[in-house]
Specification:
This protein is an alpha/beta fold. Among the domains are: about 140 residues, Rossmann fold; about 130 residues, ANL, C-terminal domain (GMP Synthetase, Chain A, domain 3), CATH 3.30.300.30. About 30% of the residues lie in helices and about 25% in strands. It has 18 helices and 34 strands. The strands form eleven sheets. A seven-stranded mixed β-sheet has the order 5-4-17-16-18-19-20, sandwiched between helices. The protein has a five-stranded parallel β-sheet with strand order 7-6-8-11-12, sandwiched between helices. A four-stranded antiparallel β-sheet has the order 23-24-26-27. The radius of gyration is 24 Å and the shape is globular. The chain starts with a helix and ends with a strand. Bound molecules: coenzyme A (COA) and adenosine monophosphate (AMP). The site of coenzyme A has 25 residues, from strand 9 and helix 12. Coenzyme A (COA) binds next to strand 9 and helix 12.
């Protein structure tokens, strides 16, 4: 079954996706299924007309789901819970859309959203979609500078934020972050809407400030504005290899179709059932599988404001699964590593009836075999690793649980999802054989749901994804197929690292560190971490004549990355060194540095300029207990 479906999707993509498009209540069904733009990039359903808010909310109310819960909000950090039905959510969204319209927001305008995991984050996103406006959600763990960069690039008419986020037992005021970001940005939004939370009331002093509830009280509900299938729904910024994040643009029609297809064939969730994705609305997983997909499917989504551990304990996920009768659960492996650390025998799980759970999905980073085995031994349901990225918006490879479940293999994301013609190419662009590692690419056309481009930067879109192997999309991941056609994703081939399931750029951290006046040169590398998967480490050469205190410099650099990028970068280790291993052409040998830090055997490359630098760095890493450097051995 899987093989047939996969082959049809690759051999006859138009017919295949025309069929899947019937899952969506279009205002005008598409007649053009696939066409190519001037850069030869696939565009799906360009002449179809829809509104994703209508498809996810109004449509279900019209079909008699008005009284069904659309979302369960569960917030142990504020000791709150709320159930919102489809009819209530539709009404709240329509009213808030009316409020945005009163502020001048129209189809095509951008709106930046900086909100924690509260139902109003979904209300804000759907309200934008209702008006045909393009939202850009920024994760709360990013610092003002990162927010400013996104505001400057997206040029939003309005910024929507909450007065605060709550991280464990800490209340984090958001208004100062918003104010600082707007101050830093050369582009100034016309309005800033603040949702006041009782944990912290923000001062709304500026002329552009508006109070969410006052606006809503005055507003009349807005109707859904029809948009074309290819019109943008959102921009989601993600880390690339340089300091400037990439604004991934998602279209509306292809995304809706892909998500609806995935809820059925991958996640096996039917209308009326409950889906829980423990991520954040600031990440792609949140966009796709907290906000849009469950509701497109007529299911109920769980919105969780808390952590896997300590809010209040490592039984939090089991409680949520049991309490809301969750059928399919999705999180990042790092969350289970945190749980396993606190509750290795899963004693807390035994306190809850989780018989409702039928499958566990993991993504955001590779599901490492020890975590897979821990979960597989613990649970009686399939433990499914699936691979995807912000750019694709939905899984590229998975075990098709809703179509034809397959035996799992530890360390593998199983097989390509229908629509994704995944191939492995060697450096010369030749296909690699089974078990041969290479660049993981996707042959054009990318299926519906994948990125439509980089916001206002077609050149970067081409150079980042399309230029390396013409006719193929470059995923940036390395990996291989085994003899059974199972795909193994082994990690990034670029400067992107994955910290606790969050994607960050070491290149960006290097730009921040390198801008310190005392720094002559630096390298930031991602090293293995047992809990978070990877952690960044900075290696820094001070400028000649530097006479300051090394520890002070290290702390300043740590503070600088926290201030510029945010706490989420987890940049907590810096080493001041005299020299760095480089090639004769001056390129820092980062991979070698990573290998040493990870405790792997390493050789001295023939291209190295100063072989002794390698020993120096190795010694420094050992002394400062960086990663497993003391286990590394020169061969
Ligand atoms: N707003 C503000 N700050 C935030 C934040 C947010 N939304 N999210 C994280 N931070 C801060 C944290 O408070 C922490 O700050 P600190 O250095 O002052 O302590 C820092 O960013 C790092 O956070 P995190 O990586 O989340 O570390 P943690 O130790 O608090 O928690 C885990 C560790 C594993 C429990 C946590 O990372 C986790 O739940 N990961 C799963 C991630 C996930 O679901 N990803 C989705 C991808 S599918
Ligand atoms: P993001 O865009 O934040 O979702 O990060 C995408 C990147 O995370 C991918 O390019 C991979 O490097 C990594 N990733 C996500 N899911 C998996 C997985 N299941 N297996 C291996 N790597 C993954």
């Amino acid at each position: 079954m899987y093989q047939d479906e996969f082959r049809r999707s690759i051999d006859h993509p138009e017919a295949f996706w025309a069929e899947q498009a019937k899952r969506i209540p279009w205002f005008t069904p598409p007649t053009t299924i696939l066409e190519y733009d001037e850069a030869n990039h696939a565009r799906w359903f360009v002449d179809g007309e829809l509104n994703i808010c209508h498809a996810a909310l109004d449509h279900h109310v019209e079909q008699g789901r008005g009284e069904q819960p659309a979302l369960y909000w569960d917030s142990p950090v504020t000791d709150s819970k709320r159930t919102i039905t489809y009819a209530e959510l539709r009404d709240q969204v329509a009213r808030f859309a009316g409020a945005l319209r009163d502020l001048g927001v129209e189809k095509g305008d951008r709106v930046v959203i900086y909100m924690p995991m509260v139902p109003e984050a979904l209300v804000a996103m759907y309200a934008c979609a209702r008006l045909g406006a393009v939202h850009s959600v920024v994760f709360g763990g990013f610092a003002p500078h990162e927010l400013a960069v996104r505001i400057e690039d997206a040029e939003p008419k309005v910024v929507i934020a909450a007065s605060c986020g709550v991280e464990g037992d800490r209340v984090l005021p958001y208004k100062p972050i918003i104010d600082a970001a707007i101050e830093q940005s050369r582009y100034k939004p016309e309005a800033c809407v603040i949702l006041q939370r009782e944990q912290h009331i923000a001062e709304l002093g500026a002329a552009i400030d508006h109070d969410w509830s006052t606006l809503v009280e005055r507003a009349a509900p807005a109707a859904c504005v029809p948009v074309k299938g290819s019109d943008p729904l959102y921009i989601l910024y993600t880390s690339g290899t340089t300091g400037k994040p990439k604004g991934v643009v998602r279209d509306t029609g292809g995304y809706a179709v892909a998500l609806a297809y995935s809820m059925d064939t991958i996640y096996d969730v039917a209308p009326g059932e409950v889906f829980f994705s423990a991520s954040d609305v600031g990440w792609v997983v949140g966009h796709s599988y907290i906000v849009y997909a469950p509701l497109l499917r007529g299911a109920t989504t769980v919105v969780y404001e808390g952590k896997p551990v300590k809010t209040p304990d490592a039984g939090a996920f089991w409680r949520l699964i049991s309490e809301y009768r969750v059928k399919s659960f999705f999180t990042a492996p790092t969350a289970f590593r945190a749980i396993k650390k606190e509750d290795p025998d899963a004693k807390l799980m035994a306190q809850y009836d989780i018989s409702c759970l039928k499958a566990l999905f993991l993504a955001g980073e590779r599901l490492d075999p020890p975590t897979f085995h821990w979960l597989d031994d613990l649970l009686t349901v399939p433990v499914i690793d699936h691979w995807w990225q912000t750019e694709t918006g939905w899984p590229i490879a998975a075990n098709l649980h809703g179509l034809e479940p397959m035996p799992t293999k530890a360390g593998s994301a199983t097989v390509p999802v229908p629509g994704f013609d995944v191939q492995i190419l060697d450096r010369a662009g030749e296909p690699s054989g089974a078990m041969e590692q290479g660049s993981v690419v996707i042959k054009q056309p990318l299926p519906p749901g994948c990125l439509a481009g980089i916001w206002r930067d077609p050149k970067r879109f081409h150079s980042a994804y399309m230029a390396a192997f013409p006719g193929y999309y470059l995923t940036g991941d390395g990996g291989y197929f085994d003899e059974d056609g199972y795909l193994f994703i082994m990690g990034r081939t670029d400067d992107v690292i994955n910290i606790a399931g969050h994607r960050l750029s070491t290149g960006e951290m290097e730009e921040v560190v390198g801008a310190h006046p005392a720094v002559a040169e630096c390298a930031v590398i991602g090293i293995h971490d047992a809990l978070k998967g990877q952690l960044p480490v900075g290696l820094v050469i001070p400028k000649d004549g530097f006479e300051g205190d090394e520890v002070t410099l290290e702390n300043e650099l740590i503070g600088l990355v926290r201030e510029k990028i945010g706490p989420i970068a987890c940049f907590k280790q810096v080493l001041v060194v005299d020299r760095l291993p480089k090639t004769r052409s001056g390129k820092i040998l980062r991979k070698l540095l990573r290998n040493i830090a990870d405790g792997q055997e390493f050789g001295v490359p023939s291209t190295i300029d100063d072989p002794a630098s390698l020993q120096d760095v190795h010694e420094a890493m050992k002394e400062r207990a960086v990663g497993a450097a003391d286990e590394a051995r020169q061969v």
